[in-house]
Specification:
The protein contains six helices and nine strands; from the N terminus they run ββββαββαβββαααα. By secondary structure, it is an alpha+beta fold. The C terminus is likely disordered.
Length: 359
């Protein structure tokens, strides 16, 4: 790998010659600007605003713009004469636990390589000292025209340096947190914990840039003249007010399904997820007592059923007896009616005979 800076690590009175190498690389796909009418590339040219002529790189210097707009030229020689002890040195100022470094300060990352055979011994000494102490080194160094802050730590068998932002470059998170008091229920926390446990850990090497791959496929398809079909847009639910409990439950189910841990029910639907609560001995005892109560009530129900059966038989007998008595009463009533009706008819016949005789 090509070095971008040569200098030395100042470790007390020990000086370790090193080379600075970029530890990261950018895999982003870069685009050019073109003229839509003819596809010609758009280029930016550096033009002097006074004479409106294009200026080449060798004719360009730097200056500081004052508050009133005045340009104050600053040359490389001016900067080189500044009393900057870290111009070619990574000066270690302290050793601290790694958790004292705020991740918000993390910037670019570099590998430090020993520059030459004489540097191997002190380089290894510093590396092993960092390993045994479980600490990181805080250092100051100069790069690209400014002094910077750095953190040295061990990665495998190499000393790596992370550029750090100065503490006054970290903005306070004022006005970022949600306004007002927001209450989170224990059930929601339980489901969040369940989701975290279900997602578990991940192999960082297995993560990749899906968007970059999609862009590469798009470029390849257009280059070969293929028709590019628009991708289906998924509903991310952004900006919607949702049921947090339902969303957490669905998230747990989706995470389990993606990891092959979901179990299908009889109808193929997913079972509802509820927070798991610890069961104490008392609850177990209450469960047993409720089971015994259920058994007793079932036995009592059977007994009551067996007792009610003969009563229903007696009810049938009384019903038949009532029917017989009613039939007898009906017969007697009919006989009386017949007698009364026959008697009335005879009386009418006798009266008519007496009227004929008198006549």
């Amino acid at each position: 790998m090509r070095s971008i800076w040569n200098g030395a690590i100042s470790f007390g009175l020990v000086s370790i010659p090193i080379k600075l190498v970029n530890a990261t690389e950018n895999h982003s796909i870069h685009f050019r600007q073109i003229h839509l009418a003819d596809g010609g590339r758009i280029r930016y040219r550096k033009v002097c605003e006074l004479d409106e002529e294009e200026v080449q790189g060798g004719e360009i210097g730097k200056a500081y713009e004052d508050a009133d707009g005045t340009m104050i030229p600053i040359t490389d020689e001016d900067l080189a004469q500044l009393p900057l002890p870290t111009a070619k040195t990574i000066e270690i100022v302290a050793f601290v636990p790694a958790d004292q470094i705020d991740p918000l300060q993390m910037d670019a990352a570099y590998y430090l390589s020993a520059n030459g055979v004489p540097a191997a011994k002190p380089y290894t000494l510093l590396r092993e000292a960092l390993k045994r102490s479980n600490k990181v080194a805080v250092a100051k160094y100069a790069l690209r025209g400014r002094e910077r802050l750095g953190m040295l730590r061990v990665v495998d068998d190499v000393i790596a340096m992370h550029g750090l932002l100065w503490p006054d470059e970290i903005r306070a998170p004022e006005g970022v947190a949600p306004d007002g008091d927001v209450t989170v229920r224990d059930a929601e926390l339980d489901l969040a914990d369940a989701l975290m446990d279900t997602l578990g850990e991940v192999d960082m090497d297995s993560l990749h840039d899906d968007y970059r791959e999609a862009v590469e496929e798009l470029i390849a398809a257009k280059a070969s003249g293929e028709t590019v079909r628009p991708a289906e847009s998924g509903d991310t639910g952004g900006g919607k007010v949702i049921d947090l409990i339902a969303a957490l439950e669905n998230s747990v189910q989706a995470a389990k399904k993606s990891r092959g841990e979901a179990r299908d029910e009889g109808d193929g639907e997913m079972a509802d997820v509820h927070p798991i609560k610890k069961t104490s001995g008392k609850s177990s005892a209450s469960g047993k007592s409720s089971a015994q109560t259920t058994k007793k009530s079932s036995a009592a129900a059977k007994k009551s059923t067996s007792k009610s059966t003969p009563k229903s038989t007696g009810a049938k007998k009384s019903t038949s007896t009532t029917k017989k008595a009613t039939a007898k009463k009906t017969t007697k009533t009919a006989a009386k009616k017949q007698t009364s009706s026959s008697g009335g008819t005879g009386a009418k016949k006798t009266a008519s005979s007496r009227k004929r005789a008198s006549a």
